[in-house]
Amino acid sequence: MCGIAGILADAPRDDVPRLVERMTQLLHHRGPDDGGAVAFGAGGRPAVTCRLAAPGEPVAWGAARAAVAIGARRLAILDRSDAGHQPMSAPDGHVWLVFNGEIYNYVELREELRGRGLSFQGASDTEVALAAYRAWGTACFARFRGMWAIAIVDWVAGRAVLSRDRLGIKPLYLAEWAGGHAFASEIKSLLALPGVGRDAHEGRLRDFLVSGRLDHTNATLFESVWQLGPGCRLEIDLRPATMTSPLGRIHRDWPNGAADICDWSPPAVRERLDDAIRLHLRSDVPVGSCLSGGLDSAAIVTSVHRMTPPAVWSRHAFTAVLPGDALDESRYADAVVAACPGVIAHRVAPEPHRLVADIDRIIWHHDEPIASPSVFMQWEVMRLARETGVVVLLDGQGGDELWGGYPGYLPPYLAELIRNGRLVRAAHEWLAKDGRRHFTRTSLLTRAVAHALPLGLRKALRHQRDARIHPHLAPELLDAGETALPPHRLRVPRGQRESPDRARGVFARFCWEQLLFDSLPSLLHYEDRNSMAFSIEARVPLLDAPLVELAMLAPATAKVSGGVLRPLWRAALTDRVPADVLARRDKIGFTAPTSAWMRGPLRSWWQDLLASHSFRERGCFEPKGVARLVQRVETGDEFAALTLWRTAVVEAWARRMLDQPPAA
């Protein structure tokens, strides 16, 4: 795991080497073990290469001028020797790479590449990724199983290639700068560049305040910064003749329609799950796991226990608990630990006073506001893991999005049945007892009808609803509209925001949107920033490519049946996960008691923010609407409490990220 950064300017400049050093060192927390940078002179020859020690220590750049420079901070997980140092170059020095993430099938790829005559100096997946690009060009990304954000400077082809893994597990942000582009693993590195503005993107701010969504489009909360989408690749021409007007072309590498699956039986699911976990246990440092008490983290811990794990499996499992609270899941986590003798359980009880003390640091690491105090629950789990000495953690992100784990999957499924004329089956689902755990019959039918409406009408109705239930927002902000795609100077194919072509029907489109745009991206954003804040590599084996392909091409009945969510996933785990966990129909996870905290220990924090002059001057909120929102919070309204949290945390974010420079 690493942090990467770079500049691709249109002409050599004196400040490029130092700026890339600054950008890279702001990512020290992502890679405290090692660091490096390279600045390129005329013709692509390295002008200066240097190691980066701790931030603030001098680097001898000399009088180097460069248009292109790249840097990396390294968290050494595979091959901890100098053979994994970055930036890494091909033997001829014409192709360079910086890489954040892990390629889990690097062992198999290395053997295949050796068969093609390539040799290796070390045992890192970084070296394999570079060799794979040299052998297969950009087709290499389709062969990777893992998570990555990669930047390649290829002077032979005269281009830079930036690639992000299929689901955007690893971040990659960009900004236009100096007639070209700059990129980084975190937004703060781009904000450190002179001329990159910190103005808020009103459309994205509106989205966050209304729904708490992050990363559902390519835009960020900063107008000047955007992100490369999941499964996308950006190619930028570096030839001098074109750098005066740089253009990039975005390609979607995935989904590519290549999968051919016809077996969705429980054994087939278990086989892919076990293979994913086996690969995700590859490490040269200790590996542990998060354990929330839910089905997905239980699936990981119990599956590892059933196999013969490698020596790096530390057996440490980390759980956030809320003693005495209805949201506490410790009894389910205890059941998993009891079913897996040898697992070492660790608990942390997150305290709201610590959230107040850490909020500025949390915001700095996330760059954008966090949608709920629940993010702090995971933050504390990562803190505990690092204090225990565990550097790699497995986590269960993606299980709900792949297998239909949220109640929100019921309405689009019902809509699909009605649209296809399967009225008897639709009636069965509508009347199912399990479905009534989440919806009344009227609300389920109403939501199903909404999913069947044309997209334009759905957007109009949603806008009316937003204005009705969020009267605390200024009308100008509510009318900010849809968020933007990347800058106009980048050619973006049609359908960049649309579901993949294979998603036919209401339910299939909904499933893909949850995976690529709506639900999962925010969770992966929080997972990455929380883990990297403590120099921990978080791995998500449930998002291994073959398992994702299996789930996303499975029939709808594998995800919803008789009002039961995730029937196939549950069937696959029947002989592994404790019965109490398997039978759960509620959904909690690492969830904080937002309403109780906002009415109690967090009260002074948000009251001070909302009473401030800066809050009033932002122009984002209606004072009378905010006052009514506070009144609703006092009644114990959970939705109002969450809305008030987002209102207050936006002010805290604005102070930290808009009003101040991005210093560590």
- Count of individual beta strands: 21
What is the CATH architecture annotation of the largest domain?
Answer: 4-Layer Sandwich
Largest sheet: 7 strands, antiparallel
CA-to-CA gap between the ends? Answer: 20 Å
What is the fourth-level CATH superfamily of the largest domain? Aminohydrolase, N-terminal nucleophile (Ntn) domain
- What's the CATH C level of the largest domain? Alpha Beta
Radius of gyration: 24 Å
Low-confidence stretches: 241-247, 484-502
Major β-sheet strand ordering: 3-2-4-1-10-9-11
Shape: globular
CATH topology assignment of the largest domain = Glutamine Phosphoribosylpyrophosphate, subunit 1, domain 1
Total separate domains: 3
Approximate helicity band: 40-55%
Residue fraction in strands = 15-25%
- The total of helices stands at 26
Give the integer mean of the pLDDT values: 89
Structural class: alpha+beta
Describe the protein.
This protein has 664 residues and is α+β, with helices and mostly antiparallel strands. The protein folds into 3 domains: 2-252, Aminohydrolase, N-terminal nucleophile (Ntn) domain (Glutamine Phosphoribosylpyrophosphate, subunit 1, domain 1, 4-Layer Sandwich); 266-402 and 521-582, HUPs (Rossmann fold, 3-Layer(aba) Sandwich); 594-658, no CATH class.
